[in-house]
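Form 12-C: Joint structure prediction
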Amino acid sequence: MNWDTRFAHRTQQMKRSTVREILKLAVRPDVISFGGGLPAPELFPVERIEQAAETVLAERGREALQYSTTEGMPELREWVAARMSRGSFQIDPRNILIVSGSQQGLDLVGRVLLDERDPVLVENPTYVGMLSAWKPYELDFHAVPTDDDGLIVDALEPMLRQQAYKLMYSIPSFQNPQGTTLTAPRRRRLAELIVEHDLPFYEDDPYGELVYDGEKMPTVLECEAAARGTTSIDDCNVIYAGSFSKIMTPGLRVGWIAAAFPVIDKLVQAKQASDMHASTLSQYIIYEVIRDAGFVENHIAKLRQVYKGRRDLMLQTMAEQFPEGVTWTHPTGGLFTMVTLPEGMNAVAVLEESVKHNVAFVPTDSFFIGDTGHNTFRLNFSNAREERIVEGITRLGQVLKEMLVKA
Amino acid sequence: MNWDTRFAHRTQQMKRSTVREILKLAVRPDVISFGGGLPAPELFPVERIEQAAETVLAERGREALQYSTTEGMPELREWVAARMSRGSFQIDPRNILIVSGSQQGLDLVGRVLLDERDPVLVENPTYVGMLSAWKPYELDFHAVPTDDDGLIVDALEPMLRQQAYKLMYSIPSFQNPQGTTLTAPRRRRLAELIVEHDLPFYEDDPYGELVYDGEKMPTVLECEAAARGTTSIDDCNVIYAGSFSKIMTPGLRVGWIAAAFPVIDKLVQAKQASDMHASTLSQYIIYEVIRDAGFVENHIAKLRQVYKGRRDLMLQTMAEQFPEGVTWTHPTGGLFTMVTLPEGMNAVAVLEESVKHNVAFVPTDSFFIGDTGHNTFRLNFSNAREERIVEGITRLGQVLKEMLVKA
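Section 2 - Result
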């Protein structure tokens, strides 16, 4: 059979993700990879998870291995709801849907909200995983200008006045791929615009806890509730996506969506049809680990300390080793910095050269709306150990210097 | 915000699944539920899984908790490929995609193959989980007539001559909800038709190992390979879906798709955008358990023995307790029998009465194409223990008798 003639129209839109393909390179132990958005495996609480698995299987094994409700484990939903509640802004467990990793949040929200060719607001560059989830809808993406402080909210206002948008998507904290963060005043102004223009807003927040400088920012959801003077998420337009991948481990595939109940209700139905529910055992293990609040806070503190050290080391090594004309962002948290090469230089060509020297990263052209960003790439600083950061960045600096001389 | 005005068009097609809603009833311990397709939790190899979790986390913990490839754990793909290979028909691991439960197989194949309003062939009644996964495509379903031996393949032939179909969907072994099984001669003839009419075919086979009478049937995939005289699945039109939910445990959410490589290649891309990959830990645990071939065969033998006993007991109690005019199927394997009430009697009304007596089941009208099947329901015989089967079926018989008298 010639399958090409049988695939659906939307299948033509599918492209293998550069990030995932590069991840495959990264499994060779001699490659120093700054590619994937991988947390540091040596910081995984493996023993704690082993104990939790033992407890869960010994005490509630049959339950933890059986089919369970699509909405998610009740205790885990309660934990998430309590953790997201602030003062009088209390979130109810019915507003929480447990998803099979936050990528699934994107997939489900796309299915529930997006019609073909809907106009959608995004940062540019934006998260490539959102683009692959939503590309089948052939959306009309509109890029909101950004600077070192994230979205330029003043530039958003005239856009909102000009036309209605179906949805806005953003990673306000430690954006992927740029590493930039929306300031608190901009968050408050953004929230006012969300209210004023009745704009649905997807707040993707997998890295929010990984703060290295200053305080954790209020979420856009919290700002919206404050702007509205409401105590209920049911009044809010923000659909918030959180994840255990970065604060615990990604291999368990557990994240969550917090949103107004009518949205959760539809997402549950979409999830039922999609994969029934997230792994019951994964949910039980995570809950068993995180129910100890002291452990979670200590673990996050440890991640912050180590990742901050790696960020500092990477930025310092880049400053020492990268040639003039190459610039990069200065993230205050998260996992990434984005590098910009001199105009006309191609990041994929740099990658090709760089892998010959066993160093990998992710060219970010596929994160851009429009045919641009070919001179940019993303570096992850959380995954590689300190000595490999120095070694890898030094080699990459060498490659860049040689290519700049030739150019 | 009035979310109803913001949802996508396809969201209007979404309906909560009866099966899932009934499952919620079933969690009250005083309810005897024949509702969900739940395996018997007392047969879960909990200790074995506990050992496996311990081994995996102690020996490969960091790997088992990290992001992994979309295609699935290489060793698990190899195991599945080897288990599905027969003589010269050898399946390669590259033809296997690990999915997050076989429901995800339906979702992904829908995305990759189905365009809006495509004509698709199905049994009637057919699996409601397929209907919810594929309803957004507003497919043009064509029902192939069935009898106690499954699809009437001779009735399929003229349908195939009349028009082209995008896909055919079937559960050939122990169908959900009917419990019926396609005979070996019909499988061979079906395979010939698949070849002759170049028909893509989705073989959903979650229950295939649960055989209580006679031998395990050859899969339609094997029959197609034989009909073509090929040794490679790359030449085949059958997309085969298998699952660990019924032979191991469903809560780990691991299944697989076996298909020609061009199909797998597109499914991988769809899965990437959907949830990145199935739980790494779930895959590692399952592999650790099943790599011991002796254990798997013993475990399946044990399931067969217990479920056969429960099927016999349920059918016998039904024969004793159900009133005249009520009929049901006689499954030779799997989890279900389907009951047909006298014409005009409504299964949902029976359920409403029955839950007052703490007995639950699934009315199957939502499994039917067209507004029919209101007098049918599905009984699961794998989940409830023997004494509860007798008690529940007796109570249900009483409800049926009383309702028949009133009617």
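Section 3 - Comments
Residues 293-321 of chain B form the longest helix (29 residues). Chain B is about 45% helix and 15% strand.
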